[in-house]
Write a structure and sequence with these properties.
4-stranded mixed beta sheet, about 240 residues, 4 strands, mainly alpha, 5 helices
């Protein structure tokens, strides 16, 4: 095989591996976001449940103030009962007293309902906090795993870069410029195999005579369609 072609093939293998490692490293922020989502969702639920609990607690306090107020009104009403002189005044007193007692019972029932809601919400808060703790541990474990994978990928990338730097020294400048131009314009694939007369880069046929020349691996031959450099390699099935 043409030595320059061989160097380009090896360079392409290293570049493809580097692209793969770089893509993985570039995906880390989005992967991290996915890992942290369950934990953040659990935190949001705790916040929401706490807000619900505080809202119910405030309503209960309002009801308790209303209960104190109605208690004072009932006390004053009873105090005025000693001043009643006529049957008409007595009937009015009874009506007022009945109304106040009815209102007091309604407030007490409301307080009981709110207390039940508070108990339910407290249980929901405890459950949500437990979920946060579980998600926190799970998230930290996954993040550590991701960080370890990133370290391995970065180390691998550094090794690949070092190998590439040594390899490209042997490539003729003009050919290397062509290769780099194709790398940039062809999505990272500058040199590829021709298989059964077809360019594996663009999947288009190459002329039969050209394929014969490609199979010799003696010259730099470009695909007539995509312009990638082609070479031949037997595929072992």
């Amino acid at each position: 095989m043409n030595k320059q072609l061989e160097l380009l093939i090896e360079t392409q293998k290293l570049d493809s591996a580097m692209i793969q490692e770089s893509d993985y490293l570039n995906s880390i922020p989005s992967r991290l976001s996915l890992i942290e989502k369950p934990f953040k969702d659990a935190q949001s639920i705790v916040l929401k449940e706490n807000e619900t609990y505080e809202s119910i607690k405030k309503k209960k306090k309002d009801k308790e103030r209303q209960l104190e107020d109605i208690g004072e009104r009932i006390k004053k009403s009873k105090a005025r009962s000693s001043e009643i002189k006529t049957n008409k005044e007595y009937q009015a007193y009874l009506k007022e007293h009945e109304s106040l007692e009815k209102e007091r019972l309604g407030i007490e029932d409301g307080i009981l309902l709110l207390m039940e809601e508070m108990e339910t919400t407290e249980a929901d808060v405890r459950s949500a906090k437990k979920t946060v703790d579980e998600q926190s541990k799970n998230t930290e474990a996954l993040k550590k795993g991701l960080e370890e994978e990133a370290r391995i990928k970065e180390k691998s990338l550094a090794v690949l870069r070092s190998k590439r730097a040594e390899l490209v020294i042997g490539i003729e400048p003009d050919l290397y410029s062509l290769y780099m131009s194709l790398i940039e314009s062809m999505g990272g694939l500058a040199i590829t195999r021709a298989v059964n007369g077809v360019c594996s880069g663009c999947n288009m046929n190459v002329p039969p005579q050209m394929f014969v020349e490609i199979k010799k691996n003696e010259d730099i031959i470009k695909c007539p369609q995509c312009k990638r450099i082609l070479y031949h390699e037997e595929v072992i099935v």
